[in-house]
Protein: ABC transporter ATP-binding protein
Organism: Desulfuromonas versatilis
Amino acid sequence: NSIIRTEKLTKSYGRGAAATHALRGVDLEIPRGSFTAIVGPSGHGKSTLMHLLGALDRPSSGTVHLDGTDLGKLDSAGLARFRGRKIGFVFQFFNLLRGLSAAENVETAMMLSGAPPSRQAERARELLALVGLAEKAGSRPGELSGGQQQRVAIARALANDPEILMMDEPTGNLDSAAEEEIMQILLDLHSQGKTVIVVTHNPDIARRAQAVIQVQDGQIRA
Ligand code: ADP
Ligand code: ADP
């Protein structure tokens, strides 16, 4: 029961002799509800792979099936809708809106949900409580530590209750205590049934993942 399946996936940037072949034929399956780490040296295609798995970008060739849907069959609007429903993203550099409170940052991700504003506010508080930040709902990113900002980013990624949480180096800028807090949240989300996919250089995260995908030279090494 795979939630993601790829076949002969390639991705090149640029053309001709100057092209970078970032992915060179990737076949993989990610089981529903698993905790998967994507590891490998810098510049070998991990982020590119995550972008294709997450429907943020399209492959040069090959296919991605996400929850049974061939992403190549969707137009741009369809792809964006599908991504918004299925996947929550967390990036290394939090990408929070500086002028908004933690709660407002989470609420902005719900604007397209059609839920009434009062329900959105309530849900934002619930999600901030889930990541241990109930008391910081009114704080702006500048008033929070790096680890707290990353927890807001995780709450925001969960706003539309996605089945899959995808993260690119979520602990890249954090000290080890903050990193451990993030790791605990990811393990909790996994135990609640989310599919968690993390691109990481962090051996602690890779060691605690259920499955590790090693990317080297644009291919899966193991
Ligand atoms: P990793 O995440 O493992 O560091 P990336 O997927 O970011 O690797 O990059 C793989 C290769 O593709 C690298 O050579 C990188 O420079 C190149 N690359 C990534 N994104 C782009 C882009 N938008 N345009 C051109 N080259 C890119
Ligand atoms: P990381 O390698 O830490 O995952 P990013 O995801 O921010 O870094 O960027 C992906 C990789 O693609 C980096 O190695 C970056 O240098 C490269 N890259 C991004 N955009 C371009 C671009 N327009 N041209 C060339 N390389 C790019």
About this structure: DSSP finds seven helices and ten strands in the chain. The CA atoms of residues 1 and 47 lie 24 Å apart.
